[in-house]
Amino acid sequence: MDSQIYGFPKLFMVFMLCLGTFMIGISVALPENKPTASKHSLSSSQANTQPQINSNSVLVALLDSHYTELAELVEKGLLLQTLEAAVNNHNITIFAPRNEALERELDPEFKRFLLEPGNLKSLQTLLLFHIIPTRIVSHELPKSPAESTRHKTLCNDHVDLMGKDSGEIVVDLAKVIRPDDVVRPDGVIHGIERLLVPRSVQEDFNRRRSLRSISAVLPEGAPEVDPRTHRLKKPAPPAPAGSPPALPIYDAMAPGPSLAPAPAPGPGGPHHHFDGESQVKDFIQTLLHYGGYNELADILVNLTSLATEMGRLVSEGYVLTVLAPNDEAMAKLTTDQLSEPGAPEQIVYYHLIPEYQTEESMYNAVRRFGKVRYDTLRLPHKVTAEEADGSVKFGQGDGSAYLFDPDIYTDGRISVQGIDGVLFPAEETTPATKVTPVAAKLVSKQRRGRLLELACGVLGAFGQHSRFNSCQ
């Protein structure tokens, strides 16, 4: 009994020791969970205390400013969150192109390329190219070429700020027209005259438009049978992309000046391997900048639809050489020469040669062959060229014109040669036929011999000479 009584405290001590160990383990485990909970609460509090964009931010000013086209592109490019982070981390400078540069002056094909869903990366790169993560106000812009600076944009490309001797400030190829247009504590907006296009976006656009990326499926017609061998004809080899059209240029011309140009059945078809509209626009702008050819440009663009027709022809693979009369020569045209319907078109058609000729090629041709006759788009008339006074003279007589401004524009498909006169085809003169009066046919009486006279005398004695015609 004593052993049981004395053994009870030992058993109680063991139980209490185990209970104490268990409580110590719980107390040790509880502090380990408290720091984890505090970390989560700290991160949530940091997220809630992240700086927000206020109403006086330059980003809000951009979205509410008169640069509506640029703000619309920013929203379509899904860049609001990126720009908010940039404004929170930097004091930024935005070069904003005016609305006209994005509405009317931007190439529609390039704008269509930017807004395609698959080209979102190019649109974002182009927009971020207009933003510098540094505050540059107007008095910090370079005023002379020696003060030119180079800055890194948000798309990691570099943009050059240059000052000209004339006092103009240029960012890349665009002139700054409204410095310090919008000024806010976290940034500034300068207005520029045109859109800035980084090289990577331009190369991507050219790659999409190049011939390598165009996949055209040629239509296949019914098989043809050779009537001689009664076998299937072998299909003609496909024309390589960019090759000259199979049909002459006259089959692709518009039926009349009031009708739209007919599509030529060249290798391009509706896929347009060449951008003829842009090339025609470039050569007309070159004429205007060159000076002295405003009248011809006005006829091509405003008075007629010839600029559109020329763009269609070049897009289908044809080449043209334009003999461009200068303003002094066009001023000599009378009202009668331009008043008849279709007269301006016919005059210009006679100055369009469906070949690609330069000043060197034409001069070498007339030096070698003397006179050269070039086809024109005014069928069936041709224009004659010959060497005169070390230059090339077109036409003959008083209606001739000399090559005055050679190679005004040459791009491999359109060649513009300035001349000092307006050419007209030689009048088709038909020789006058002499009208001779029809002479009356005189029937001479048959001459009678002596024997016949004697016979007629004997018959007359008997009154029978009237029965014979020879005796009458």
Task: Compute the CA-based radius of gyration.
Answer: 46 Å
| Count of runs of 4 or more consecutive helical residues | 16
Number of strands: 16
Sheet bearing the most strands, described?
7 strands, mixed
The whole-number mean of residue pLDDT values reads 78
Distance between the termini: 204 Å
Structure description:
By secondary structure, the protein is an alpha+beta fold. 38% of the residues lie in helices and 17% in strands. It contains 16 helices and 16 strands. It has helices spanning 2-48, 58-64, 68-76, 80-89, 99-103, 108-115, 120-128, 199-209, 276-290, 294-303, 306-315, 327-330, 335-339, 343-349, 359-369, 450-461, and strands spanning 92-97, 131-132, 149-152, 158-163, 169-171, 174-184, 187-192, 225-226, 231-232, 320-325, 352-353, 371-375, 382-388, 391-394, 401-410, 414-419. Strands 2-1-7-6-5-4-3 form a seven-stranded mixed β-sheet. Strands 11-10-16-15-14-13-12 form a seven-stranded mixed β-sheet. A two-stranded antiparallel ribbon has the order 8-9. Strand 12 (371-375) and strand 13 form a beta hairpin. The longest helix has 47 residues, at 2-48. The termini are far apart. Mean pLDDT is 78; it is low at 1-8, 28-50, 256-272 and 428-435.
